[in-house]
Amino acid sequence: xxxxxxxxxxxxxxxxxxxxxxxxxxxxxxxxxxxxxxxxxxxxxxxxxxxxxxxxxxxxxxxxxxxxxxxxxxxxxxxxxxxxxxxxxxxxxxxxxxxxxxxxxxxxxxxxxxxxxxxxxxxxxxxxxxxxxxxxxxxxxxxxxxxxxxxxxxxxxxxxxxxxx
Amino acid sequence: xxxxxxxxxxxxxxxxxxxxxxxxxxxxxxxxxxxxxxxxxxxxxxxxxxxxxxxxxxxxxxxxxxxxxxxxxxxxxxxxxxxxxxxxxxxxxxxxxxxxxxxxxxxxxxxxxxxxxxxxxxxxxxxxxxxxxxxxxxxxxxxxxxxxxxxxxxxxxxxxxxxxxxxxxxxxxxxxxxxxxxxxxxxxxxxxxxxxxxxxxxxxxxxxxxxx
Lengths: 165, 212
Fold this sequence. Notes:
The complex is a heterodimer of chains A (165) and B (212). Chain A is mainly alpha-helical.
């Protein structure tokens, strides 16, 4: 009986130690911050400057896409806390590498069409926005009507760009 | 007693001779296979050597040889991809895609002549984009085929600018691909082997242009 009580006390001690270590670690990583992805302006190379975008589509792009696919991320409050800040920074890095609306007119004509078509595919297949983002952003959960609007707009736009090619 | 030893000797002899016969048969079969492999290998090298020699000839014409775009290699990579799709093999298509991306990465754009550079960059970037998608989706052949539509258009334009790499090519058209809007593909053989439909309808389509 006495032995089990002592073991219990040792367990509590080591548990407390572990928690303390975790807390210290947590506080330390708060000081290692990735830079924020914000330019505070709409660049001249932005997709909305290049193409005609109806309001409905623009709203969807802004609310569901621009955070990871532009040079202007709107950060949530928890985005300043590690490790969330790292996770977000990583998502943004990967997103911008694949598609960046802020620098859309830097793509060649051919590539613009390809990017648009891939956007439509991703939306149709529900592969974009990513699940984690949709979880935290209500406005990123697109309705059927919103998805249709995007896909139709892309179709029209890609066709008009193809004529130029 | 004697009969038993006699029996045993006979069975050993039979065993030995059976084995000799078997190994002889196997030996000759293997030799035949090796020989046929050799002839196949020789055939392959006969096909590829002229291409290499043509490239070499181009590079050594002497007149301030500008760095050429490796059209032959790029087209070969595309054709390998195309043939994999025609056989409904997404994995092979992905592997071919990896190869093509690697080929494009080797091209030294800095040394391209001015007029070629922009034309090349424009189409090569898009070729790379679609090829990367194809390479990344070995298990989703329909997604690969979607990208193949635009990749083929790019290749068609690429060939217009940079040539057919010294081989006769055929521009084929599939009326059913691309949601019924139709799509092209480039082939090295006249026979229609549709990469968009694969085994479902391999002969669907027609030759629209011979690129000599």
